[in-house]
Description:
With 362 residues, chain A is mostly helical. Helices cover 77% and strands 0% of the residues of chain A. The radius of gyration of chain A is 32 Å and the shape is extended.
Amino acid sequence: xxxxxxxxxxxxxxxxxxxxxxxxxSIVLGALSSFTMVGLVVARAINxxxxxxxxxxxxxxxxxxxxxxxxxxxxxTLQQNFKGENIDHVREMVMQLxxxxxxxTRDLLIALLxxxxxxxxxxxxxxxxxxxxxxxxxxxxxxxxxxxxxxxLHMAMDDENQNIxxxxxxxxxxxxxxxxxxxxxxxxxxxxxVRSRMLREIFLKVGRNHVKDxxxxxxxxxxxxxxxxxxxxxxxVQDYSAVPAIVKQMKxxxxxxxxxxxxxxxxxGHPKCMPAVVAAIYDEAWPVRAQAAVCAGNIGFVExxxxxxxxxxxxxxxxxxxxxxxxxxxxANGMAALKNASNGTGRSAQIAQLVLSEKEAA
Amino acid sequence: xxxxxxxxxxxxxxxxxxxGALVVSIFIILVMGAxxxxxxxxxxxAYSVLRQRRLHISPSEAWQQLNVTTMxxxxxxxxxxxxxxIVENVRSMLSLHYPNFExxxxxxxxxxxxxKAVIDAYNLKPIVRPYEEAVNHKxxxxxxxxxxxxNLIVVDKENGGKxxxxxxxxxxxxxxxxxxxxxxxxxxxxxxxxxxxxxxEDPERVVAVGGTIRIAxxxxxRAGRVTKVDMPTNLVALFQVVEYLRAFLMARLAWSxxxxxxxxxxxxxIFKRGDAIKVGxxxxxxxxxxxxxxxxxxxxxxxxxxDYRVHFVPDPVCWTExxxxxxxxxxxxxxxxxxxxxxxxxHKKMLLNPKYGVAGMxxxxxxxxxxxxxxxxxxxxxxxxxxxxxxxxxxxxxxxAYMSLSFIFGVTISVGSLxxxxxxxxxxxxxxxxxxxxxxxxxxxxxxxxxxNLWRIMGTWHFMLGRKEWGKMxxxxxxxx
Lengths: 362, 481
């Protein structure tokens, strides 16, 4: 029987014509599609059943964890209590609960992760896991700050996956006061391939512990992205001593750097920066002019009233609008200047009228 | 004339047209073969993207992890005669999980009580809001806002069509990003958080991002949210579920990977406001304004020599109601085809022009193959193949084999999309859903696929006639959960 089938198959292939090839392709594709879909439907039915059981189990586990949180047991009792429990299930439940608790309860849950071995498993996964496992591991490790964890996170900052490097940097920024700004720049390839907005928050967290490093970096920076990030962090840290370094960046050839420098000055709000802000109202790039107007209005530089009146006639609508808004913020003198401008005709009068009517309606 | 003479004439005719028929047959087979090869490549590309995406996180985790780094968004909701659904849909948009956004509802000169419904529901009063007249649109009659809903603005303007309404929204928007959403669509609560990720990860280069559109027919909807995913009971809607899976999970993802995505659905897309203004906003002279703005962005960025990205993200979902009657669906498909052709011919200089990079060398030829040549070639195949067989150009065996391969290949591609869905996203909760969709991907080859091509041919005809109207779309409304 087997020999006969063999003959049939070999004769089919020996006589394989174009027509037979088409039929053969149809049969193979049809069979593959059918079997795959049947397989997927069956697998889904089995998985759904398994998921139902798992969800019921996780619900009980969640209750047990909540009971544990209330009982205030020590680590040994805790380890005993959750012995034999699937580590991944405990991790999943605890990570869910962590988002909604703080203080001692949060510390207790973190101790539970340690106690049942979630931290140890994460330390292994971050080294040998796939990308998803590494990301999950970093989520767990970001809750700890012991030497082993910090070393593992520093190692993860050399990972080839950009997301993993970023996540590790974020975890370190939270937990390792020793993480330097220069290490961040180097490991995350800032100014190169990595452009994420997450960098801003990471830079800010690290910068809070290293204000002097930030200022030093700003003094010697030539790369646009690094300058923007540093200015963002310095601005949010609000260190007055950084004002001269920030003002120096107002001479940068990059529009983004000059605009970010103004945002930093705006956040710090120190009167020393007044000449630089007023000068920026005449910058060649409209985003810088608009930002200078915002800055002048927020800090309250009445010296900027005349330049702002000129800015009301800017070619760019946003610069005109920000100038009008700034004049409103500059109190009685600013308002008087704006009302005066609204009496005329043309672009200045139009924007002044619109902003005044918006203010009156509010 | 006796039968013998007739057959002689037919034989003579067949002999005369044989060389031409062979050339036509080979051309049809080559074009359809090229389409099929493209589908296979798309499937593999889509798979590779889905495998590489970041760890999937729950809505609450998304909020915790992503909210700090997001950029503010203006949600633009153009509406025309949406009286029945506008209040609930605006409420659902106001409750989206996103740290900093405003909702700008644009009443495009509705002839029903859309404006009154939304004013009454949110206790809106006339407001003054200075705005930049950066892109063209019909005059604005009034602006409305409320202190109770500081991030809601309603614009009442003269009727000018969807693109005109969106342009008014772009002018009114004060945030760096805007998101165009259909007034009758439902965004998942974390859709903005997820869709904005490409802007967060690459804020300088990304200019536009699209999300997935899914069919809400059959699903339960409560308070503007899809609460239970289910299959439509209507066959026409079911066909569209499979079509949308193929379009979004396979095609858009693959073209996004190649940096040659030529379409972001008008129902859900996020754009950088500044760049949209630079290309003049949405065009008024096309019904394919969603495709045209993306092509314009590609064109502008390439002409300016800017490094840029247009992305598609599969996770954020916008639910929409699909037409359940063939007549309304036909109208929609004719309009889509007309829109594609308008956009294609308006920017035809990009075709195979190296100056426009992958968009010109890959994206545009794909539009040519699928939207311009695809429908007439496929319909020609349906007509010519039986004709050639009857004329004896090729044998019954070959005809049957070719038709069988063509249909089975179509089914395999649909099954491929279902496999991607099941392996990576799993939005359909029951195994029965997968079985139904498999059956539908087989049935659609017998009638629906041909009808779709016919509609597209009609759309092509309407394009050639220079028709401009949108056509009326009637909706049944979502199923209450």
